[in-house]
Amino acid sequence: AEFKELMASDTAAKELLGFAKNRLNKFYNPKLYKAPAKQELSAEDRIVVNNGGTPPPTEAPGGIADTGVMALVQVHAHSQLSADAPPAPPPSTWGAYTNKSEENIGVVAMIDLLIKDLTKEMTEAETEEKHAQEDYETLMQDSADKRITDSKALEEKVSAKADMEAELLAHSEAHKGAVKELMATEEYIASLHAECDWLIQYFETRKTARSDEIDSLKRAKEVLSGADYSLIQTRTRGNLRRR
After folding, report:
1. Would you tell me which of 21, 69, 102, 122 could form a disulfide with 63, CB atoms 3.0–4.6 Å apart?
2. Which backbone phi and psi does 80 adopt, to 5 degrees?
3. How far is CA 114 from CA 21, 22, 65, 122, 162, in A?
């Protein structure tokens, strides 16, 4: 908005200065004066003029002092000047008119300098606006690229999260199965401990009983081989009492 207002005001100022320069050239340097374009008459107006009539009056171009410059008028209309403010005092009048060509040339040169300054300001403003537009476009492109990159990264993270959740569920199920298997193994180990503890507890007793049984079998074999039965019977009764 500021760039457009600056360009509009500078353009209008250049047009107004060019109009003033052309007016000065009309009186002080007629060779450089550029006359306004002739008014194109309509078919009806040409018939009237050909029959000796007068052409229609030329409408004033309007704007500032009928110069056709409208931009400064629009800018001035948006200013904050109060409508009720008293008018400024009229400028002091100059003395009698004298033709000073050197001063007129200086005024034209000053107008040219002002036009040159305005042109320079407009060129700088256009360059700054161009660079600002390029920076803005670069920023928008970088932002778009970043949004694309962030979107892809987000999709990858969402996918990775889904995979991890699936793995977590699988590991949870495997953990539950492992816990059940561990409990069954511990129960089996406990039953084995109970059986082994009983065997260890009565091992000596069972060992002694097995030794006595072996001795009895040996003596019985000896009896069958012709040994003294009464002696064997007495020993056998003594062994039975010990049991």
Report:
1. 69
2. -100, 20
3. 11, 14, 20, 12, 70
